[in-house]
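Entry 12.
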Amino acid sequence: MSMHGSATHNMESLTMSYRRLVPGLICMQVATALVGAQPQPVPRAQWGAPLVTVSHEGNTWVVAGQRHKVILQESDLTLSIQAGPVAWKMEPSAAQDMLIKSRGEECYLSLADAGKIEITPMDTGATTGLSIRLERFRHTGLLNRGLELDLALCLTVGLEGKDEELVCTAAAIEREASVRHLDWPRALDARGVNYTALSHVRGNLLPGDWPKEYHPYRNVPGGQESLIATDTSIIQSNLIECWSMSWWGFQKAEAALLVIVETSADAAYTFSHPAGGPTVIGPRWLASLGRLRYPRSVRMCLFPKGDYVTMCKRYRRHVLDTGQFVSLKEKIAREPLVGRLIGTPHVRQHALRNYKPGGRRYDPNQPERNYRVTTFDELAQQLRELKARGVERACVTLAGWPYLGYDRQHPDVLPPAPAAGGWEGLKRWVDTCQELGYLYNLHDQYRDYYVDAPSYDPQFAVHEEEALGRPTAFPGTRFGTWKEGCIPFMDYWDGGKMAYMNARLALPHLVKNYQLLFEHGIRMQGSYLDVFGYVPPTEDFHPEHPVTRTDSMRCRAQCFQWARNNLGIVGTEAGADWVVPYVDYSSDAKAGQCIAAPLYNLVYHDAILTPEGGVGDHLRCLLNGGYPTVGRSPESLPWMRHIAALHRRVALLEMTDHQFLDKNHRRERSTFADGTTVTIDRDAGTFEIKPELKL
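Predicted 3D structure (tokens):
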């Protein structure tokens, strides 16, 4: 090829290469232009992230927000919060932070004794703080001392939201070792607080220097309470004496701190208050069927200026946001019968008392105490007489109607007590209620499992984890309980020896009983399901049908829901707040043993009907806008009429405020959403309602 031809060929090759190259160059230029046009990162404040920084110097970690600062000491895991001028400090890690089980032996551990502590910044975009991983714990038990545990804890602390609430979580990686309970975060150092707001029963304020030793339920003198004083049951969630709502709080000077337990099914709290204080209370996470199993969470809400009313209103927002608050207006829209409860006096009737021979309550020396019957026809006549006394409306709950009487042979309670009139007598009682225009329902129960019930089978009784040791299923040792193998038993109520029924059987037995009532032409207008709202959910360790506390609550909720859909009105005992979405009314709960405050009503007044004082404390019932109950004496009728008239006015309204008007807490005032105020004076025995009632 000539030189000229070669050059021509090379030029053609270059031209082809250039043509192939140009599109690529153009793409690169476009891409470069596009990259250059990308927006700069948006500042955190503009996409909603908390303006929180994390720093570390020496032994100290600091999580600093715009309003609050959280400080963690790495050496002993002490947490403290600086909220403006007020400091809140938790206790440091201690020897009994955590109870674990490994290689068949339980032992206590200090979190700070972990062989490896790794703390790193954490930023989820919504919560900013610290992640704490604890590993290489060593067994402290006698048999396995020094052996490394196959266990890790994952803890977090972080500020969340515009209010910079402190959220603390705990999770466990459980392999061979398991967590039986965990105290995290540690209890608040409550020295210097004005009072601790406690949600046991309907609400109490415990001054920091209260001069007496105090316990949520063990220091109540006299009567049945003397048994409670020696009870070894643990403090736990959803037991009305310990916890009617899943929070507690503190006021210090003008500031307040509210602790909301967000994962409450398997929760508790540590507690002590020696004479003169201080009060020690902090979250405790209980095992679920022997293991921690799932993450636990507690939220601390800080207020520069606040009190127990502030705390109640923040918790009210929490239950509204989570769906745990269902208003009475919603319940009435779903079941109009509920509307007839407003301003309606409640009446309790009792057909048959029949203590089981040989049972604890049976008295061979006073046989007249062991058996008493009022027939269904006699009870019907009592209702006619009540109507004649001017009680135009009533809601009647019938107890003692089962085959052998009150608290006998549950869950197999049919046919109705022959001694009281059987099927025909019960039907006449229902007909009388309808004739008088009274609401009516049955007092019923699906937890106690009597050994003489026709369907009793030990395999369906609640089983504890081990045969050794004292019973742990509530009520623990309160009423002289014992275990046979893994089954806890009790002999205290009318029916004698009983266990506790696996919660999965509650709904089938309830349906069985009411379907038989339907077949006999008896359709109740509701059901009062005893104990469900009072006692905590019960675990069952039986390997063929295990039940967690969460399972137990779900089974109880199914009973409430069935009663709503097939009967109408739903009631329960006392009313720990997990039942609020399902229940229309509850029985009373005691006011407490220090300074009673209507914490429950400040949250739930317009979500569930409560008597708040019942027959015995008319002033408390008025203060709290409770529903009326019918007393036995004629003197109670004027009180009942005032309570009923007030209830008609305020039952569907929020209680917006409560105040103590004197230093001795004897004069109080409550305020409702329409401006109604109720002022009571306990020493004078008087009350004032504004605007005045029209009776």
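Annotation: Confidence is low (pLDDT under 50) at residues 1-34. The CA atoms of residues 68 and 84 lie 7 Å apart.
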